[in-house]
Known about the structure:
Family: Belongs to the glycosyl hydrolase 30 family.
Shape: globular
Structural class: alpha/beta
Order of helices and strands: HEHEHEEEEHEEEEEEE
Helix content: 10-25%
Keywords: Glycosidase, Hydrolase, Lipid metabolism, Signal, Sphingolipid metabolism
GO molecular function: glucosylceramidase activity
Domain Glycosyl hydrolase family 30 TIM-barrel: 1-127
Number of helices: 4
CATH architecture of the largest domain: Alpha-Beta Barrel
InterPro entries: GH, GH30_C, Glyco_hydro_30, Glyco_hydro_30_TIM-barrel
Amino acid sequence: xxxADKTAAKYxxxxxxxxxxxxxxxxxxxxxxxxxxxxxxxxxxCMGPGVRLGAWELAQAxxxxxxxxxxxxxxxxxxxxxxxDTSGGPSWIPGNRFDSPIIANLDAHEYYRQPSFYAMAHFxxxxxxxxxRVDSPIVIRNNTEATVGAFxxxxxxxxxxxxxxxxxDIDFTVEDSKSGKLTTKIDPKSIQTYVYYD
Length: 198
């Protein structure tokens, strides 16, 4: 509605979406097609209820969602709460407790990096400002449960991220006409990142 109004559209640079409103990720294609000059930012990711220390499912969900939204026109992805205490708070809504990438144990004066923290690192560490999504140079041989994304960085590197949420290994090949070919596999329920330079 805002973007259809020429006057109002001047004051809106883009749209923030919550991660529970865009499943499947292909739902983002039509809004981008209608307004390619406006950004889409993925926001307010969280899982709950409560804290589950060491829960790998949270890392899998983060990896799948981050890569899926980046493959469908988002310019970034933000968490709702990067740090919460061991009860999953604080929260302005009573009883509203969630998990987060870092859990602070205030009594012990220590913190725990959750698996979701490391899932986010695959993106935050390798996709620096200015990176853009490109066609993927990867071919998956025996599975359709993997999510794959390829990006070019300002440092002239190509970053390929693969999220395997399946129960089996995936054989795949990364092939680039300039840089060569790599055939390898990704373990079940895992995330891998490959970086190569021209």
